[in-house]
Design brief:
By secondary structure, this protein is an alpha+beta fold. Helix content is 25%, strand content 56%.
């Protein structure tokens, strides 16, 4: 079970009272709207960057991607 978070027009996020959500419902909402995950990994030794990896992933349902 999770908590539904509501974002108002000003951008503030507050928990919605009395609305618990199951993990399946949360995944359904994420896949319906799509999620972008972005990250960077840098491996360095003695302040010398040896490896830099940029990660970008789009997670969405096929139906959502076809509609857009």
């Amino acid at each position: 079970m999770g908590t539904v978070l509501v974002r108002d027009a000003g951008g503030a996020v507050t928990p919605a009272r009395g609305q618990d959500v199951a993990l399946v419902d949360l995944l359904d909402r994420l896949l319906a709207g799509g999620v972008v995950i972005v990250g960077d990994v840098t491996i360095s030794l003695a302040d010398v960057d040896l490896v830099h990896i940029s990660l970008r992933a789009l997670i969405s349902s096929v139906q959502t991607l076809e509609e857009r």
